[in-house]
Amino acid sequence: MKDIAKEFSDVIAKRHWSEKYQKLTQTALQDSDVQQFIQEHQDQLNADILNNNLDAIYEFVQAKSNRDKFAVGYEPKLIIANHAIQVVYQPNQQLVAQKKQQELERKFMTIDMASDIRQANLDDYAQGAAGRQESYAAALNFILKYSQNQPQFIPGLYLYGKLGVGKTYLLAAIARELVAKDVSVLLMHFPTFAVQMKSAIQDNSVLTKIDQIKAIPILMLDDIGADSLSSWIRDEVLGVILQYRMQEKLPTFFSSNLSMTELQAHLAINQRGDQEDLKAARIMERIHYLSHEVIVSGPNRRFN
C-alpha cells in the first residue's frame, strides 16, 4: 500500500518553493492527526489532492495549536468533501455541556425557586422514601402521555402532602424530563409571585407579567395555599391565568400542603376575613379541570 504522505513529501522536495514554505508544509504533513487522516482516507487521496489543499491542512494544524485564537470552544477536524480536503469546526465537550446547560435554563424557567432546583432527578425521587409510588407513577404517566402528542387534553398534577415530603422536588424532576423532550416549563413559587404582582401595580406591568406566564406550555405553581390571598390576586391574577389555560387546554401543575377540598376552603376567605365561597369555587373548578389530585407522602426530606 503506497505511502501518500511520503509521496507528497518527495513532490515538495522537488518543487522550487521557498525553504520556509517547504518547512511549514512538511511540518504540517508530519502532524500525527494529519497522518492519521491521510491513512484513513488514502483510497480517496493522492499527491495532487494534497497539493491543492495544503492551505486546509496548514489551517488545521494551526487551529489545533492555537485553539484560543481560532475558535474558542471548537475543535478542528479534517474532512473530504467534493474531492477536496476541508476543515470543519465541531464544539468540544466543554462547549457542548455549556450549551446543554443554557438550553436547560432557557426551557426550564423558574421564578423564586432554589438555584439547584434544575438538578432534580426523577430516578432519585423514585429511590427515596416509601409512600411515593403513586406520585411517581402519576408523573411517569403524564410524561409518557404528553410526549406522545395525543390530541386529547392531558391534565397536570395537583400534588399535596405534608411539609417537606418532596412535592417541589417532584415538580422540578418532572420539569427536567419534559425539558429534555424540548418542552418549555415554568416553575414558580406562587406566594412570592403574588407579592411581586402587587408591586407590579406601581409600574403598570401586571398584564404584561400575566401574559408572559399564562401561555407557557407547562406551568407549575408551587406552594399554592401557603399564604392568604387578596381577592384581587385570587380573581384577577390566578383566576385569569387559570381561565386562559383552561380555554387553551394547557396542562398545569400545583403543589400544596392542602388537599383540593382544603384549598377551596382556604381560598374562600380573603385577607380581610370575608367569606367568598362562590369565587373560591370558580377557581377550584379551573384547578380541577387542569390537574388531578395526587397525594405525596413519606418522611420530611428536609430533616433527614
UniProtKB/TrEMBL annotation:
Task: Provide one Gene Ontology biological process annotation.
Answer: DNA replication
Q: Which domain of life is it from?
A: Bacteria
Q: Name one GO molecular function term.
A: ATP binding
Domain IstB-like ATP-binding: start-end pairs: 95-300
Under Gene3D superfamilies, the record lists:
P-loop containing nucleotide triphosphate hydrolases (3.40.50.300)
Range of residues in the leader sequence? none
SUPFAM superfamilies this protein is in? P-loop containing nucleoside triphosphate hydrolases (SSF52540)
CDD domains named among the record's database cross-references:
AAA
**Residue span, Primosomal DnaI N-terminal domain:** 1-89
What NCBIfam families has UniProt attached to this entry?
Answer: PRK08939.1
What's the name of the protein?
A: Primosomal protein DnaI
What is the organism field in this record? Bombilactobacillus bombi
Phylogenetic placement of the source organism: Bacteria, Bacillati, Bacillota, Bacilli, Lactobacillales
